[in-house]
Each structure stands twice: as C-alpha cells, then as structure tokens.
Design goal:
The complex is a heterodimer of chains A (about 325) and B (about 290).
Chain A lengths: L1 H6 L3 H12 L8 H25 L8 H18 L3 H23 L4 H21 L1 H4 L5 E2 L3 E3 L2 E3 L2 H23 L2 H11 L1 H6 L4 H27 L1 E2 L6 H14 L4 H17 L7 H15 L4 H8 L6
Antiparallel strand pairs in A: 1-4, 2-3
Chain B lengths: L1 H31 L6 H17 L4 H24 L7 H22 L16 E3 L2 E3 L1 H23 L1 H11 L1 H6 L4 H23 L9 H16 L4 H21 L5 H15 L14
Antiparallel strand pairs in B: 1-2
The chains are: A mainly alpha (about 325), B mainly alpha (about 290).
C-alpha cells in the first residue's frame, strides 16, 4: 500500500503537505508563520518558473516582471480604482497572461543567451515603469497595500496567511505535477530535448513554448499578488533584476524539472537570509558562495541529487 | 546641433566603457562559451581599489596599477575555482555560477570597502575642452584614448602573437586546439586575466566622471552584455560597435526623451534588434546540425 502510494506522482506533495501541517507545532514564535508564508509564496513562483525552465527548457531572467505585475495589480487596483482585492488578483493574472502572450510570441523565437538577454530586458522594463510612474506606484519608495477581505473576513493574521498561502501553493504544485504527465507536459518535455525532433513528431513547438511562458507568468503573478497582500507593502525591487535571479536560482538550486525541487529551492533560498540575519555583514558573501558551490557540485540541484543519494527517483 | 554633439560626446564616453565591458564578455565567451555575469565586478574593483589605495596615500598611477593586478587575480581565481570545476555544465548553470560569483565578489567588496560612492580626481584636470559647438571633459578623452589603446592592443595580440592565436584557436575549436598541443586551460586562464584587466582599466578611467560604489557592477555588466549581444555575441568588433551604440543611444534618449527611461531605451533597442536580427549586427547566423 505504502509502496504503491510512494510511487504516485503526488506523493512528494503529500509529504510536503504533512510537513506544512506539522511545522507550526514546532514554531517558537509567530515570526515563523511569516517566514513560512514567504517560503510558500516564493515556492509558488518557483514551481511556475520550473514549468518554463525545467519542463519546456526555456530560460527567463525576467520573471520578476510578472511577479511585479501581480504585486502592483493588488496594490494599485484597490488604491486607485476601488477594485476589491480578490478581483485585483484576477486582473493581475489576466494582465500578466496577456503581457506574457504578447511578449512571448516574438521573444520565444530566440534561444540560449539571446532569450536570456531579451527576457532580462523585459523584466528591467517592467521594474523601470513601476519605479518611474510614481503617481500610481509610489515610485522607488513603494506603496502600502490594502488588506485582502474575503467573505467579510480581513486576512491579516500571520497564521491565517500561513495556511492560505500553503493551500495556494499545494494547489499550484498539484496542477504542475498533473501538467507534467499530461499530453501538454509531454509535448513540452519533447521540445526541451530536441525542438526539431518534437516538430517532426507533429508538436507545434512555438505554441507549447508560449503556453509554458504564459502559465509560468500566471504563477509568478499570483505569487506577486499574495506577497504584496501578505506584507501589505510593496516596492519596485520586487520586480527587479535581483528578484528574477532569485527565482531562477530557486529553480536551479532545487532542481530543474522537479516540482518538489522548486519548493525545496525556494525554502532554501528564502530561509537562508533569515538564518544569516545575525551575520548580516556576510550574508551576500555566503549567498554567493552557496549558489556557486551547489551549482558546481550538485549540478542537477539539491533535490534530485539528494533524492538519488537516498535511492528515490525524483517525481 | 551643439546639443546633439554634446549628447554624442557623453554617449561616446559612456559607450567606450560599455564597449570595454562587452570586449571582456567576448574574450571569455570565445575562449570558454561562458557568459560571465561577474564582468561588471571587475570594473567596480578597478575603481574601488584605486580609490582606497590612493586614499591611503599611494600615488594614483601606482594605485591604478595595483587595482588592475587585484582584478586580474580575482579573474584568475574565478576561472580556477568556479568556472573550471564546472566544465560541461549547462548554459543556465554557468550563468547562475557567474551570477553567484558576482554576488560573492560584491559581498566581499562591501566588507573590505564600504557602501558609499567614491571618485578620485581626473587625470588632467576638470577644465572642459571646446570642440566645435560642444565641450568635452579631458577625462572623456582619457576614456576614449584608453578604449582605443585596448582595441588596438587586442587586435595586435590576437592577430600577431602566438598566445593570441592560440586563444583564437581554442575559441574556434577546442578539441582541435588541444590536438595541436595548445594548453587550453592556460589559454582560458589567460582570457579571464585579460578580460578582468580590461574591465579594471575601464573602471579606473571612468571613475573620475561617474563615481563608483560596490553596486555599479550589475548595471554595467548588463549594458556591456547588451552591447555584446547587439554587436553579435563572440565578435570583438561587434562588441565594440554594440557597446558604443548602447552608450550613444542611451545618452541621446536621456537628452531628448526622458532621463527616467534612459536605461529602458537601451533594452528596448536590444530586444528589437534581437527580434529583427537574432544574431546581432555583425554575428553570423548559427545553423544547427540535427
């Protein structure tokens, strides 16, 4: 029974769900709820980016742009247009998806370094707009975000956000796991291995690349919205180059193509600054060092490498 | 007209720095297929080390020399400790390794130096020189002259010395180069040293005009990278042309359109170029073998 269960594609998620449910029992203070929330939200973005990078094999160094779109949708929507928070999340999603669709069509024709620089440019453009249109966005200092109200209940308690973001992450991850094993996911994996071979087998390469791009943009946008709402504050840095790099690092650190890996990478990278908070001076030094070491000695990422060592194939 | 000329001069100065960064990218890319995102940190080290050594009482020329040595050593260490052990890793892995290196170098620089902006005095005064209807700073001439010297030097090095030809050979076919007895590892180290040195020189030359801090590396690397892409990745002449163009377009758009979006315009143009000419202005279109 357990052996059969452990082979199921969602088994890893079940384990993670149990960890998430049990972890609060060990929290010494409510601060850890907040840290958990930050990890789940980052993980959501990483799971989405992993669909583009790990599954379809396309690089994006500008995904914080979509994260920023989602974040500012829930900040500007309620503040300037009186849109309720939940509707602003949907508007952010629609906006990110349409921008991804329009930008993705021409950009995804590029490959390798060229795709990297084009997406990087896109991300920088978004963060620049957010920085410069101060009348809407509060400029470089950022702006405060109205609390999310759902069914008359104001979501602001740290524990409430912990459970809400965990739920969204698990649903997003379940979707991603199912996508990997769907015909669409198989098509994406095929074009990852060889675009020519995929095309010869009748796969519309451009269309599936675009799909992967749009889907990952939606994940990033949703994550951005949740981050803005849970922190109740947002700055353009959330759409900046470093944020994009963080997202890519989470995916690659955790393990490309593995949903669990994306979550592990996010947990690792998000908790690192907290653990290093006492040594703030050397935080960047250690961050850079760890990134390099993992990339050199565990090329597939933390999760697949460790999973192999302990004798389990990665889901 | 005079205004245009003024923008052009400052664009050329800025562009010369981007061109030097782009050249650094190109040299490493050709020798090892690595896009080195830590390239901007060499520029930062050039300016910062010079400032702090100079502030400690060492004469400027000596301080500058020391800064170049430091940057070269950092470049060699980067190659030996981070790039060489990662031989054969995927493009994305290598990009992330060099980004990690960039964060690391920046972090160490912050510990050793500080977070503030610094500049040292211009080499031959701050009296602007009148050229036609516009003025140009003597330091800008230093930047342009330095860039020209580097371009000519590199051209002579790659075309007329054994080591330069060996690097070119490694760039065109690594295995074949190894077969004829070229020490490819030494050539990789040489190319990292070379591009670190060029970056440091760029940083030293530009600091009197635009102050330096530990944070300047990232944007410089991005724009230099953009210049290298615009010219066609791997093409040294393209890197120079691309870098200069990014600088000029940036200053023109800052002057005529909006200073807020000057960084944006550079990237818009790069995206458009990539879409219309995917291999850059001077690059060859790569044909994949299936």
């Amino acid at each position: 029974m357990l052996a059969r269960l452990s082979r199921h594609r969602a088994f890893g998620l079940l384990v993670i769900a149990i960890v998430i449910a049990v972890a609060p029992l060990l929290f010494p203070s409510t601060f850890y709820y907040r840290m958990g929330t930050a990890i789940f939200i980052a993980a959501l973005a990483a799971v989405g980016l992993n669909i583009l990078m790990g599954l379809a094999g396309q690089v994006s160094l500008g995904h914080a742009g979509f994260y920023g779109i989602g974040a500012y949708a829930v900040a500007v929507g309620p503040a300037s247009f009186g849109v309720p928070g939940w509707a602003a999340i949907l508007i952010g999603l629609a906006l990110a998806a349409s921008v991804a669709f329009l930008v993705g069509r021409p950009i995804l024709k590029l490959r390798g370094h060229y795709l990297a620089v084009a997406t990087l440019g896109f991300g920088i453009l978004v963060s620049m707009v957010l920085t410069n249109e101060g009348a809407w966005t509060g400029g470089p200092d950022g702006m405060s975000v109205k609390r999310l109200v759902l069914f008359g209940y104001v979501l602001k308690d740290r524990a409430a956000w912990y459970w809400a973001s965990a739920l969204v992450l698990l649903m997003g991850a379940l979707l991603a796991v199912n996508l990997i094993d769907s015909p669409t996911g198989r098509a994406m994996r095929a074009l990852h291995d060889s675009e020519v071979a995929a095309a010869v087998n009748g796969i519309d390469v451009a269309r599936y690349k675009l799909w992967a791009f749009v889907i990952s943009a939606c994940y990033a946008s949703l994550a951005g919205s949740l981050a803005a709402l849970s922190d109740a504050f947002i700055t353009p840095a959330s759409a900046g180059f470093l944020k994009s790099i963080e997202l890519v690092t989470m995916v690659v650190l955790g393990g490309m193509g593995s949903v669990i890996g994306g979550i592990v990478g996010a947990a690792f990278l998000e908790s690192l600054p907290q653990l290093l908070a006492r040594m703030q001076e050397v935080e960047h030094v250690l961050l850079g060092l760890i990134i390099m070491l993992v990339m050199i000695f565990m090329r597939e990422g933390l999760f697949p490498t460790l999973a192999r060592r302990f004798g389990r194939a990665s889901p | 007209m005079s205004q245009f000329l003024q923008f052009l001069f400052s664009g050329l100065t800025e562009g010369a720095v981007y061109a030097m960064v782009a050249l650094g990218f190109t040299i490493i890319y050709n020798a090892s297929d690595v896009v080195n995102f830590a390239q901007g940190e060499f520029v930062m080290l050039g300016g910062m080390v010079t400032f702090f050594v100079n502030a400690a009482g060492v004469p400027l020329p000596l301080a500058a020399l020391l800064a170049i040595v430091v940057a070269v050593l950092v470049g060699l260490a980067l190659n030996k400790l981070a790039v060489e052990p990662a031989r054969g890793a995927s493009v994305v892995n290598l990009i992330i390794i060099t980004i990690g290196a960039s964060i690391f170098i920046k972090g160490v620089a912050q510990l050793v130096f500080d977070k503030r902006f610094h500049r040292f005095q211009a080499f031959s005064g701050d009296e602007p020189i009148r050229v036609l209807d516009a003025t140009i700073l003597p330091q800008s001439l230093w930047v342009l002259a330095g860039a020209c010297a580097i371009f000519v030097g590199l051209w002579l090095f790659f075309g007329h010395t054994l080591a330069g030809k060996a690097i070119t050979a490694v760039a065109s076919n690594r295995l074949a180069a190894e077969l004829v007895g070229i020490n490819t590892q030494r050539m990789m180290a040489l190319s990292f040293a070379l591009s670190a040195g060029i970056g440091a020189i760029a940083g030293i030359l530009i600091t009197p005009i635009s102050p330096t801090s530990v944070e300047v590396g990232t944007l410089l690397a991005l724009k230099g990278f953009a210049g290298a892409m615009l010219g066609g990745m791997g093409n040294p002449l393209g890197a120079v042309a691309g870098g200069l163009m990014v600088g000029i377009v940036e200053k023109l758009s800052a002057g005529y359109l909006s200073t807020n979006y000057k960084d944006a315009v550079a990237f818009i143009i790069i995206i458009l170029t990539l879409l219309v000419l995917p291999a850059g202005l001077f690059g060859k279109v790569k044909v994949d073998r299936v």
